[in-house]
Amino acid sequence: MKGIIMIIDGMADRPLKEIGYRTPLESANTPNMDRMSKLGISGIMDPIKPGIRAGSDTSHISILGYDPYQVYTGRGPFEAAGVGLNVISGDIAFRCNFSTSNEEGIIIDRRAGRIREKTDEIVSTLNTIKLEGFEDVEIIFKESTGHRAVLILRGEGLSDQVSDSDPKYNGKVPKKVIALDGSPEAIKTAHILNKIVKISYEMLKNHPVNLERIENGKNPANIILPRGAGAVPDVKSFDDKYGIKSACIAETGLIKGIAKLAGIDVIEVDGATGGLDTNLENITNSIIQHAQMDYDFILINIDGADEAGHDGDLQGKLNFLEKVDQMVGEIMKISNTYFILTADHTTPISVMDHTGDPVPIVMSGPEIRVDEVSKFNENAASKGGLCRIRGSDIMNILMDLMNRSEKFGA
Which of 181, 198, 230 is the last residue before a domain boundary? Predict the structure, then answer.
């Protein structure tokens, strides 16, 4: 038996007045998800524990069976691994946004118009940064998907105990990075980051890529905002942990990085952008292809619903959920497989950020104890036979269904 966990990033939501106080999942036309509910067992899941606003990183760590409170050192190392950087011991890694600043230094678009193209050219310029007085520190940038990038600081006397520069909301200036523990290493690192943020604007405001974007009516990617500092965590191999061979099909550098640091094979898919424009057909074909290979387990992450939630784009989320539903129908055709469909967190249209609401989950496959739930959404799933579980329960349940778990006790 094989196992698939498909995580639709940010899929869960809250009831909205605009659609009759229903959630997008309740309003969208999702016949395949509903059919999966009829054939399976449903419930609701707290990615970490009730009321905790999980990030995509910490929730995936939990769902894979690791303790995020022990493994998670910050988002940066996962992003760095995900984009192919060789992170070594002592490196301090950061997740970054390409953002848009006006001349007064106010961030008017944290995601630079969801930039998709030529970020490698911007990164090429950023990699020429040399800081006077810090010649011993190597500054390494690498573009990720869309508006995302990664920064590594490599050198002596650095620390990950620093705050973020990202103000989190448009209309504010970048936050001043500060040392969180007052150590000389953290003070040095914070000083370097503040210099990088300032210099990035001076280097990028007249960059050819940005001048072209302005000419085309798009927001320029004229400043870099580092956040999510972290040191490389020590993670036990996922395959060794469960005695299986695993793969991951994901769109963002973050999720790919989590997989890579856990020793999971990462499968690249052409056209997987992580946005509403992602090529779901290519992703579906890749899932079906690799499910027929010698992998016992595949982790899938699809990101578009989360993007729509963060943007407050109700119609975009509805449309995307209906497209994903077609994927679900194709994946359900894979034989001898336990298929789990869920989300990593709730991203309500009304909040435009993650919340601590539980998410729906459904499992289908041979010998599943089918319950009476016939719809896949937040409210219907809460009446299912799985009841309320945590993300850390999923792999235990899946391994038991696949007859790969060990008996506890006599």
Answer: 230
Of 230, 264, 297, which closes a domain? 230
**Is residue 390 pLDDT above 80, yes or no?**
yes
Supply the range of the domain harboring residue 256.
2-72+235-401
Q: What is the pLDDT of residues 157-207, one digit of tens each?
A: 999 999 999 999 999 999 999 999 999 999 999 999 999 999 999 999 999
At residue 394 the predicted structure's pLDDT band, cuts being 50, 70 and 90, is very high
Same domain, 68 and 87: no
HEC secondary structure over the chain: CEEEEEEECCEECCCEHHHCCECHHHHCCCHHHHHHHHHCEEEEEECCCCCCCCCHHHHHHHHCCCCHHHHCCCCHHHHHHHCCCCCCCCCEEEEEEEEEECCCCCEEECCHHHCCCCHHHHHHHHCCCCCCCCCCCEEEEEECCCCEEEEEEECCCCCCCECCCCCCCCCECCCCCCECCCCHHHHHHHHHHHHHHHHHHHHHCCCHHHHHHHHCCCCCCCEEEEEEEECCCCCCCHHHHHCCCEEEECCCHHHHHHHHHCCCEECCCCCCCCCCCCCHHHHHHHHHHHHCCCCCEEEEEECHHHHHHHHCCHHHHHHHHHHHHHHHHHHCCCCCEEEEEECCCECCCCCCCCECCCEEEEEECCCCCCCCCCCCCHHHHCCCCCEEEEHHHHHHHHHHHCCCCCCCCC
Question: Do 161 and 25 share a structural domain?
Answer: no
Looking at the fold, whether 270 and 351 belong to one and the same domain comes out as yes
**pLDDT digit string, tens, across residues 64-112:** 999 999 999 888 888 899 888 988 878 999 999 999 999 999 999 999 9
